[in-house]
Amino acid sequence: MMPRYRRLGWFIGSGVVLAFFCITRVAAEPNVAAASSLNQVLQEISRLYRNHSGQSVNLIFGSSRGLAHQIRAGAPYDIFLSADAESIRLLQKDSRADGEQVVYGKGRLALFVVEGSPFRLSSSLRFGINDNDFARVRKFAIANPYTAPYGRIAGEALRRAGVWNRITGRLVIGQSALQAAQFVLSRNADAALLPYSLVLGKGFAGRGTAVLVSETLYTPLSHEMILVRGAGDDARKFFRFLQSETVMDHFASNGL
Q: First-to-last CA distance in the chain?
């Protein structure tokens, strides 16, 4: 039987797919679909672009796989920044991509422990799992391992670390990495496996501590972006801006 959180994720995802019909092309503003883990960095980049060109873009955030399915279904997105290569391949297979994909970063996992949590920081994910402290742990947050790229590699890391069976009953599943982050920041979870780029954001400052998870436990994600077939000139200008040295340096300085 499909796990409860997987069925719930499908239901929520179906509703999100319907939402794109409410999105229209607003004047010359390109519609930019992006993985939720890029929320902060892409907001900053869009402000840089507005200061540089005087033009704005319309940002839409969600899970990479969900956004890819929306584009396949005809959502009016012009640019897609995915947290994984697989979602890009789906669109290339359907001839929805205009040109080749561009790699803009590397997706790495971080273990974030909220202030006062009994969890211990550990790059190997041996975070006191066998200690008495673990009995006091309530919830552990990850993104949906079936629909979100960071959820998939979080599940991979927990399994390779040998702690999946012990922690699975305490998992709280976010539809996206951003929602998983909200769970832990609101203290509805004691700790979370999140994108490294996300925990570097201002919203996490002073709220807890984080450590990069060992890359022996999972395969880092290839962050790729494409221009969607049918995109206009303004979208192409922003796509070129995303590939500029200034923006690529900005991605790197934000942990990508």
A: 36
Q: With 70 as the cut, is the pLDDT of residue 242 above it? A: yes
Whether residues 126 and 145 share a domain: the answer is yes
- CB atoms closer than 10 angstroms to residue 92: 13
Total domains, the chain = 2
96 and 114, same domain (yes or no): no
Write phi, then psi, for 150 (nearest 5 degrees).
Answer: -70, -25
In a domain, 217, yes or no: no
CB 178 within 8 A of CB 198: yes
Among the listed residues 47, 86, 44, the one whose alpha carbon sits nearest the alpha carbon of residue 63: 86
DSSP 118: S
Pair 143, 154: CB distance under 8 Å: yes
Kindly list the distances between the CA atom of residue 167 and the CA atoms of 119, 141, 245, in Å, as whole numbers in the listed order.
12, 10, 42
Q: Do 97 and 145 reside in the same domain of the chain?
A: no
How many angstroms separate the CA atoms of 24 and 46, rounded? 19
- Using CB atoms within 10 Å of the CB of residue 191, give its burial: 0 to 12 exposed, 13 to 18 middle, 19+ buried: buried
Residue whose token pair is 């005087």: 54
CATH number where 126 lies: 3.40.190.10
Task: Read off the amino acid at residue 66.
Answer: G
Which tokens in the block code for residue 70? 């929306």
User: CA-to-CA distance for 104 and 236, rounded, in angstroms?
Assistant: 16
The boundaries of the domain holding residue 150 are 109-212
Which residues contact residue 94 at a Cβ distance below 8 angstroms, ignoring those fewer than 6 apart? 72
Q: Is 36 among the domain residues? A: yes
194-239 pLDDT, tens digit per residue, is: 999 999 988 999 999 999 999 999 999 999 999 999 999 999 999 9
Residues 248 and 175 in one domain: no
